[in-house]
Amino acid sequence: MHKSIQLRWFEQAEAKPGGEHVRLPRPASEPHANIVHMTTGPARFDRQRVLAQVLNHIVTAVRSLPATTQVWGKAAFPASTFSLKEDDHDRVLVAVLITDIVDSTKWAAEMGDRDWRTLLDRHNDATRRQIKRFGGKEVGNLGDGFVGIFASPSRAVRCALAITDAIAALGISLRSGVHAGEIYLKDGQISGIVAHIAARIAATAHPGEACVSRTVRDLMVGSGLVFEDRGIHQLRGLPEELHLYAMPSLVRQPTPV
Predict the structure, then answer these.
(1) Contact predicate 39/55, CB 8 Å
(2) pLDDT band at 15 (very low <50, low <70, confident <90, very high)
(3) Does one domain contain both 126 and 222?
(4) Which one of 13, 59, 103, 233 has the fewest CB atoms closer than 10 angstroms to its CB?
(5) For residues 35 and 51, what is the distance between their CA atoms, to the nearest angstrom?
(6) Tell me: the pLDDT tens digits for 102-135?
(7) Residue 248 reports pLDDT greater than 90
């Protein structure tokens, strides 16, 4: 009797269309059971077959979703969840070096345009040579200084010292500033607050010095370079104070006239 009841359940389940929730009649002595028939065809209580049917149902459901809500792995995310703004592709993490000739206006006035132009050309050649030597990229020429970016702070600082020493041989002094962070780099030009901070840091340096932010100093732990603590500074135009450090050149700088 029990066997005939099971056969009747199976026959009724087979007659139902796929995916329909089937509520089967049962004798009072049998426990209540609801069966969800996932696909057409004979209904069998086989673990592997049921698992295969469930997986097939999931795959079919995934493929039917719009492209923007496809399920990958265990969760569904809209495509925009991981999208980046177009500008984000132009943001890069670099060390920014900015150099400046000390008293350039005074030198130009005393030397005259022609001699100053000759000296400036020699300064430019020496600066570009060192930027290339330390693997940097020139992204700006300020007339009496340069803007360069480097893959690491140590390269930027060592380049600053090398430029300062090379320029000292020309009888002029250089000051420089280095800061690290993300900048916008597009068409060979940079922008962003990091570049402004580097310029403000350079303005605090003494002749022959490379001043750096604490960010740069901390990133250079283990580099072998030792910095002098220059304390907390409120740089012009910046809302927060910065802790600055200096790396003086080992070459004796010319005395300003």
Answers:
(1) no
(2) very low
(3) yes
(4) 59
(5) 15
(6) 999 999 999 999 999 999 999 999 999 999 999 9
(7) no
Q: Both 42 and 149 in a single domain? A: no
Q: Give the pairing type, strands 209-213 and 174-186.
A: parallel
Do 72 and 104 share a domain, yes or no? Answer: no
Beta strand 75-76 with 71-72: parallel, antiparallel or unpaired? antiparallel
Cα–Cα distance, 11 to 3 (Å, whole number): 13
Q: Which domain holds residue 50?
A: 2-82
Which residues, other chains included, contact 236 with Cβ-Cβ below 8 Å and sequence gap of 6+? 200, 203
**Tell me, what's the pLDDT at 88?**
61
- Half-sphere exposure at residue 4, Cβ-oriented, CA atoms within 13 angstroms: 2
**Rounded Cα gap, residues 219 and 195, in angstroms:** 18
Residue where a domain terminates, one of 52, 82, 112: 82
Kindly report the length of the chain. 257
Q: Is 253 contained in some domain?
A: no
Distance in angstroms (rounded) separating the CA atoms of residues 182 and 47: 55
> Domain for residue 254, yes or no?
no
DSSP state of 33: -
CATH of the domain at 231: 3.30.70.1230
31 and 46 inside one domain:
yes
For residue 250 the two structure tokens come to 């080992």
DSSP string, 170-182: TT--EEEEEEEEE
Last residue of a domain, one of 82, 104, 121: 82
Domain count, the chain: 2
DSSP bridge pairs for 134: none
The label of the residue with tokens 């010319």 reads: 254
